[in-house]
Amino acid sequence: AIKDHTLAHLDLYLEAFEQRVIEQGGKVHWARDAAEARAVILRLCRAAGARSVTKSKSMICEEIGLNEALEASGLARVETDLGEYIVQLAGETPSHILAPAIHMTKERVADLFAEHHGRPRVAAPEALLDEARQALRQRYFEADVGITGANFLIAATGSVVLVTNEGNAELTQGLPKTHIAVASLEKVVPTLEDACTLLRVLSRSATGQEFSAYTTIVTGPKRPSDLDGPASFHVVLVDNGRSQVVGSEFQDILRCIRCGACM
Q1: Which residues lie below 8 Å from residue 239, measured CB to CB, with a gap of 6+?
Q2: Which of 74, 173, 200, 216 would give a disulfide with 179, using CB separation of 3.0 to 4.6 Å?
Q3: Is 136 helix (H, G, I), strand (E, B) or coil?
Q4: Which of left, alpha, beta for 102 (phi over 0: left; psi -120 to 50: alpha)?
Q5: Beta pairing partners, 154
Q6: CA distances to 13, 84, 180, 198 from 58, in Å
Q7: Rounded CA gap, 10 and 45, in Å?
Q8: Is there a contact between 158 and 21 (Cβ–Cβ < 8 Å)?
Q9: What is the pLDDT along the chain (263 residues), one digit of tens a residue?
């Protein structure tokens, strides 16, 4: 019902979201298609003088082909979700929206880490996890720009909601000087209460948890009283055909919250 209501008034809530983001000191960029979205993100990276970029798992970024565009422009990109990081090292694309490397064996992961990290090969999952953590930690501090997706956008507050079980989205958005959140139009919901209702559905349907380990609500850039956070905050809203689906017989597909239960 929340999603149906929002889709029936999508223009109203998207404009309200934009206004609140601006009031909080952030900026909103509208992209009609994948090419425009890539161009906006690359322009923001250039404006930030970026050489390296950290990135948390985002299906909309996969949809618009952002990874290839970042690398073609000479930016050093590192995926911070463990599954996405493994897939990146293998030169592959995700095989699942929740578990990107679910098609991999631990033996293959061990081989990839030994090849790319230049360390003795380890095979135990805990050791592989620790090795990935050590490899990624410095990359967070080196990144000039952090790019995330958005599980929800809250119209009433101009907030972006990020959900992970690894804490990687938090380090990706909080440490670099610039945070770029990329979101498709249907991610908007009216209020924080609505987002919390859907978060309960998301976690249970995705992993069987009552709530994910990390649920972060990001509202604008760093304030003078904040100890950390990005100096600049951007939201890129991607249409890429969605506005043509609203009001059509296929509108129900825009109620999807990417929980992965159907998979």
Answers
A1: 30, 31, 32, 33, 184, 185
A2: 173
A3: helix
A4: alpha
A5: 159, 189
A6: 22, 10, 12, 18
A7: 29
A8: yes
A9: 999 999 999 999 999 999 999 999 999 999 999 999 999 999 999 999 999 999 999 999 999 999 999 999 999 999 999 999 999 999 999 999 999 999 999 999 999 999 999 999 999 999 999 999 999 999 999 999 999 999 999 999 999 999 999 999 999 999 999 999 999 999 999 999 999 999 999 999 999 999 899 999 999 999 999 999 999 999 999 999 999 999 999 999 999 999 999 98
Predicted TM-score (pTM) of the model is 0.96
Q: Which two tokens stand for residue 132?
A: 């990935």
Extract the tokens encoding 244. 């043509």
Sequence letter at residue 23 = E
Both structure tokens of 87:
């897939």
Pull the structure tokens for residue 143: 């990144």
Tens-digit pLDDT profile for residues 231-248: 999 999 999 999 999 999
Alpha helices of 58-179 — where are they, by DSSP H? 59-63, 66-72, 82-90, 106-117, 125-142, 168-174
| pLDDT tens-digit map of 133-163 | 999 999 999 999 999 999 999 999 999 999 9
Alpha-carbon distance of 71 to 62, in angstroms, equals: 14
Which residue, 107, 64, 109, is CA-closest to 85?
Answer: 109
CB neighbours of 55 closer than 8 A, spacing ≥ 6?
Answer: 61, 67, 70, 77, 78, 79, 80, 84, 146, 147, 148, 172
